[in-house]
């Protein structure tokens, strides 16, 4: 990694729900966020409740079936990240999102760390077998209100990190390493209120990164930032990343 960054800065991008709102996926904690509009919705993604309440599981599967998230397409902000990576600048994405839109936009999967898992797969809570979300939703549409694991009959859940579950320690360890190595760390569309993801911004700043926060609402890390951008993400992030790309090419 050090040879890559001799002339070209390592750019780490921590993305939250705000980067995907232009794709039609609502955020969680903003003024119109899901948790504010429907506090009961948190129960559907709380592990202990999900595992012990069959009615919650049935409602969860209906929510997934009706969700627009899996039909969403990447927007200009996702595409700008890919454009920067393809220009030769070392880029790593750490995302709190589960929508997979960074990869669909063209970001190599090995350069995307999904802190909270993915909504595009399901996993068995008993044998850990994984399969596609689309297949599970086809079973729901066919009448299975709470589809069980085909391998062992265990309870299936989205391959996302629910409330009450720990993050994957390997993914988190890699995210910490990226944050500490970054020359530029951009937190975009995230309230920086959910730990441990939020602490990555502070960690990057402590290790000398230029910290840039692009978010509509204030965050707890604004005072640490070298730059805070309140403009709409769909236009602000592409402009910022294009500027970084030009600067990297000029020095490279």
From TrEMBL:
Listed EC numbers: 2.3.1.286
Organism domain of life: Bacteria
SUPFAM superfamilies (UniProt xref): DHS-like NAD/FAD-binding domain
EC main group: transferase
Keyword presence, Transferase: yes
Binding-site list for Zn(2+): 124, 127, 149, 152
Transferase recorded as keyword: yes
Domain spans labelled Deacetylase sirtuin-type: 1-247
Record-linked PROSITE patterns: SIRTUIN
Active site (record annotation): 116
The entry's keywords: Metal-binding, NAD, Transferase, Zinc
InterPro entries: DHS-like_NAD/FAD-binding_dom (IPR029035), NAD-dep_sirtuin_deacylases (IPR050134), Sirtuin (IPR003000), Sirtuin_cat_small_dom_sf (IPR026591), Ssirtuin_cat_dom (IPR026590)
Protein's UniProt name: protein acetyllysine N-acetyltransferase
Lineage: Bacteria, Bacillati, Actinomycetota, Actinomycetes, Kitasatosporales
Gene: cobB2
């Amino acid at each position: 990694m050090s040879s890559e960054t001799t002339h070209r800065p390592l750019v780490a991008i921590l993305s939250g729900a705000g980067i995907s709102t232009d794709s039609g996926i609502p955020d969680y904690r903003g003024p119109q966020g899901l948790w504010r509009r429907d506090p009961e919705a948190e129960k559907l993604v709380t592990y202990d409740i999900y595992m012990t309440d069959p009615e919650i599981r049935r409602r969860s599967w209906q929510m997934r079936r009706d969700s627009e998230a899996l039909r969403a397409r990447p927007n200009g902000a996702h595409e700008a990240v890919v454009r920067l990576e393809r220009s030769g600048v070392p880029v790593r994405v750490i995302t709190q999102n589960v929508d997979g839109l960074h990869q669909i936009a063209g970001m190599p999967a090995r350069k995307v760390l999904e802190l909270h898992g993915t909504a595009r797969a399901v996993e068995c809570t008993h044998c850990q077998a994984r399969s596609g979300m689309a297949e599970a939703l086809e079973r729901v549409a066919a009448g299975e209100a709470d589809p069980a694991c085909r391998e062992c009959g265990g309870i299936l859940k989205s391959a996302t990190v629910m409330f009450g579950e720990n993050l994957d320690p390997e993914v988190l360890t890699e995210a910490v390493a990226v944050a500490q190595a970054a020359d530029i760390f951009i937190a975009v569309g995230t309230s920086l209120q959910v730990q441990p993801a939020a602490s990555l911004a502070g960690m990057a700043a402590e290790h000398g990164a230029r910290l840039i926060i692009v978010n509509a609402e204030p965050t707890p890390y604004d005072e640490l930032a070298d730059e805070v951008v309140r403009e709409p993400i769909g236009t602000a992030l592409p402009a910022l990343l294009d500027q970084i790309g030009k600067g990297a090419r000029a020095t490279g």
